Amino acid sequence: MTDANTTIAFIGLGNMGGPMAANLAASGYSVHGFDVGAEALATAREAGISTFDSVADAVDGADAVISMLPNGALVDAVVTEALAVVKRGTAFIDCSTISVDDAKAIHAKAAEAGSPFIDAPVSGGVAGAAAGTLAFMVGGDGSDVARATPLFDVMGRAVTHCGPVGAGQAAKVCNNMVLAIQQLAIGEAMVLGEKLGLSAESFHSVVSNSTGACWALTVNCPVAGPVPTSPANHGFKPGFATALMVKDLGLAMGALDSTGAAAPLGRTAAEKFREFADAGNAHLDFSAIIDTLRD
After folding, report:
1. Nearest to residue 62, comparing CAs of 50, 74, 73, 53?
2. In the predicted model, what is the mean pLDDT of residues 10-23?
3. Annotation says 172 is catalytic
């Protein structure tokens, strides 16, 4: 998909999808976009994206359809609507975070209609989407992944083919459970450091250069100061909203239940983030959970 005449339909132009689609347009692709939000559509038009009033209109004539949507039910609805319009063989690339079972079911529907489908959830947050530095974890047939890789290279910095359809979602579920645990651990340790009289700058300097180093500290530091670009310096504007972390942890808990795997730390993180969201913080970056640890 490197031809300058390639047309990409991008469905879901929100905080993540909008900048991803904008990067594709900036690289020379013809991008058709659809979103239910008027503000998202207006922003997309400013980025050179041709916007449409429906999924069907946006995907008409597209060589590939990329989706970035909140849940599996919406992805299924979009793919179903698109399959009625697109030519046979049009590639579907879903960058949403949905369940493994949903990804497999949607793949089966697309395959029956003669179109390839791959699941390609991302890591890197809004900043990574804007900068084109996302990490893609992909599930699907090797030839389909290779066909989509030029698009991933525009939107991201790393692509890992994890296995067949559903494997990308499996990797994303595992990754975000790790992230949730690490963000809680960093919050606990930073609060302990505060109570011991250790400055945030000293904590960050030591831990980010030691065995405790992790993205939750080096990029998403939950205390203002050490990392000026982290959400903590901007009123905890996400970033990665707590509501999305709760959704992803819900997928992880479903996977734990279905597989029988043990994850006491993951289950504790899911409980803590659910409580934090229910207390009115769903709109904040998930690193804001540090404030509950100070109480």
Report:
1. 50
2. 97
3. yes
